[in-house]
Amino acid sequence: MSAPTRTREVLSPWQKPLVRMLVGGAVLLAGTGVFLLNSDGASTAATWALFLHIVIGALLAPVLIAFVLPHAFKHMRRKPVIGLTGVLVSAAALAPIWTGALMVLQRSALRGAWVEPTHQISGFALILLYAVHRRWGSNPASWGRLGAAACLMLSLGLGFSFLERNAPPEVVASAAQPVSDVQTGNHFGLSSSTTADGEFLPDATVLMDQNRCSECHPRIVEDTLRSAHKFASMNNPFYRGTIKAMRNKYPLVDTKWCAGCHDPALLFTGRIDDPDLDFDSPEAMLGLTCMSCHAIKPRSTNGNGDYVMQGRVVYSWERSNDPRVLAAHDILLEAKPDAHIESLRPHNIDKSNFCATCHGAHVPPELNRWKFQRVQDEFHDWHDSGVSLNNVRSFYHPPNAKRCQDCHMPLVPDPEDPSSDENGLVRSHLFAAANTALPFLRGDNAMIERQRQFLQNAVRVDVTGIVLEPEAQDGSERQRLYAPARLAKPAVKPGEIVEAHVVVRNFGVGHKFPGGTKDSNEVWMQFEASIGDGAAFYHSGRIDPETGLVDPAAEFWRAYVLDRDGNRVVNRVGPDVYTKVYVKTIGPGTANVVRYRFQVPEGAKGKLRVKATLRYRKFMREYIDFLYPHDKTIEHPQMDGSIKEVDLTQLPIIDMWTDVLELAVTPEGTTGPAPTPYDVIDPEPRRAAGDIDLPKDRERINDLGIGYLLQGDVYWAEHCFDQVTKIEPEYADGWVNVGRVRIQANNWDGAVASLAEAKRLKPGWAKPRYFEGLMYEQMGRFPQAEAAYREVYETWPNDRATLKSLAKVIWEQALPGDKERPAQALEFLKRMIEIDPEDWVTWQRAIAIYKALEDSDGVDAATRAYMRFKRDDDEQIRAGDARRKDPNLMRQWQKKSTHVQPGLSE
What we know:
Layout: H1 15-37, H2 44-75, H3 80-105, H4 115-135, H5 143-166, E1 170-172, E2 194-195, H6 210-216, H7 218-226, H8 237-249, H9 256-262, H10 264-269, H11 290-294, E3 296-298, E4 307-309, E5 312-314, H12 323-335, H13 338-343, H14 352-356, E6 360-363, H15 365-368, E7 373-377, H16 378-383, H17 404-408, E8 411-413, E9 425-427, H18 437-442, H19 445-456, E10 459-468, E11 480-482, H20 485-488, E12 497-506, E13 522-531, E14 536-540, E15 555-556, E16 559-562, E17 579-583, E18 591-599, E19 606-617, H21 621-627, E20 633-637, E21 643-647, E22 653-665, H22 677-681, H23 684-689, H24 696-710, H25 714-727, H26 732-744, H27 748-761, H28 766-779, H29 782-795, H30 800-812, H31 820-835, H32 840-852, H33 856-869, H34 873-885, H35 887-893, E23 897-900
Parallel strand pairs: 2-4, 18-23
Antiparallel strand pairs: 1-5, 3-4, 6-7, 8-9, 10-11, 10-12, 12-18, 13-14, 13-15, 13-19, 16-17, 19-22, 20-21
């Protein structure tokens, strides 16, 4: 089709300058648009290109209207075909005008995802339609003129690209060297944190950006300002007290060990080295800000703040004092946020690995002048659990893997936030967990309530079993176990010795409970036995009203730490940490059983009332007494900005869960053998009456069995698990649990049968196959064990026990001079070391394999790692001395913990 020949002018004299304005503006819009399509938006060139694009587009809109309406009215009737193309051009122009206005005036979170692509597509469609209109219109444009306009557009885009390449975006931090080139020297001491060039920052500007952040993310910043992260530094009087004690006792450089996670502003500016440090300076009181997480690059999951402070990309005009310029900056940032997002979103910020950067801590030998001590490790506790779906052996598995962020940063509505998802949700930045002391200082009662709710959904307490004295009617001297006790309801008689088995189940925490600072937090059981509503005739775990201390004979879940002189470390000073007497926790999906033995009072009538409460306090009273040996009332800023006196002896105590069991007291008590849980739960009349709550009642028995098994009580564990299979025969985990108990008891035939049933119920399931491998390994049938473990490895490649066992059984099959099998075993050990480089048993095995492979370098490296991470004889001796001196410590250290009423025999 050839273009029509030129006939006559179709524009009035007043219209010609408008057309020139429209064509020239379109060229500028297209040129800047082409450039912006390939730019992340942060450079000076991008700023000006976007500014021109917006301003020119806004100016051309009224010009287009002034030209199109009279032009279309005049020529539409005379040249309808050509007029139709003009109508299409006019209609196409409305789309980029409309979408452009939405992009400038409306927050990105509130406009549809279609707006930006519609703006881009309609803009290019407008150019093509206009070219068709001009080429075949009444006054056709030549190919040369159209080509010249296209070349001008491309040249403009290339020109801006050239400017951007020669003026890259500004990064707020020190130099922007690649992370692999970091050379820290001695600037940051024992801290694992560093800057991009290993040098000090000139100031703390990079960290002090929360006011700017709040302009677009107000709720997120508001939550952050109430979180424990904000009060991580000298604005936390507890942390401040520990640091002062540390600075008084040890070289100043030692405090850098803490600073990467608690005091980045002091660490990276070098002010932490000042012997006259101003603890009230803005840098010291800053805590952790948005940039403390969003402007870093984590390097490992070793903890101790192993990251590089990268800084963030700064858009032009951000630092202007003119509010109009700042408003323009905000529009530009919102319209082209790619560089902003990229520089403030570390690659793994949405993974648990990111949290491990600081929520893991170890004392290096250089700090305690002795040995490596792991003191906090939520990441590996989570990773080696059913919650992460990396642990095939777990008693329970959720339908889907969960991350730290799923629990501690749940989604909350905030549709106006630019970072919200398609449902208008953002991640909460309150970081709800267990720190009730900090909001208490500030009078933030809403935050305390949030933490309370979090804690009360973490752990469950259940007085599941009641054991009565044995009766030798059938020649058996075994105790009589009534479980679940709330359904069995055995009667007791005056003078009878009763043992209550209290189950504490971790059902809501993705790592071991308690986590965090286990050495200074208090989690304990308060147990009381009374007759009716009378005073308790036996109790354990009460708080002394005068000293504020918890009964030392209580059942605690905590870390009990000693210094090198054998004294308990209550000051939280890292260099003092030498060894641990015990660390008692409850793993994800596991349970503890605590036994309380007491005697029903003579002459008792009515009801025996047993009450068990799991209690939590942040911090333990001994720590408060260390920090404030005299006056325990301090002045502290409140939420409303006022200063108030706060009594630290009144730190909140959260009752996480309470269970009460009442049993009838009768003259004869309960005679005869105890019913099995199956007898208690199964009868149809109970189901019909609504007394049975499945699967909860079945789970109670299962949890009791888990607690027994982990304490080595194989008889009662098998009894419970066997009953689980009768209560719910289709529950495959019950059969696996029976199998694992029988393996522990060397009952191979029984284990084979129960594991076979589990496999029948769930064909292809890896869990029973793992325990088959364990059984074959213990029997010395290594080829069968290897086959089983390899099947498990196919679907559970991160299961640590499978990796270690595979390496072991392959190694056991190696003949003298065989290099192939040791090499295979080594590959699985290397995988295990990638997951957990602190597993000293793995390193010990690696030494032997490297020797077999005649790899001297490997032997040396494995030996160094083994010597670094293994426990030392001296620290174990000192821990043993402490246990022998204190029967409460000895009981806590033992797997099976029984608390006995004074006057009764153990």
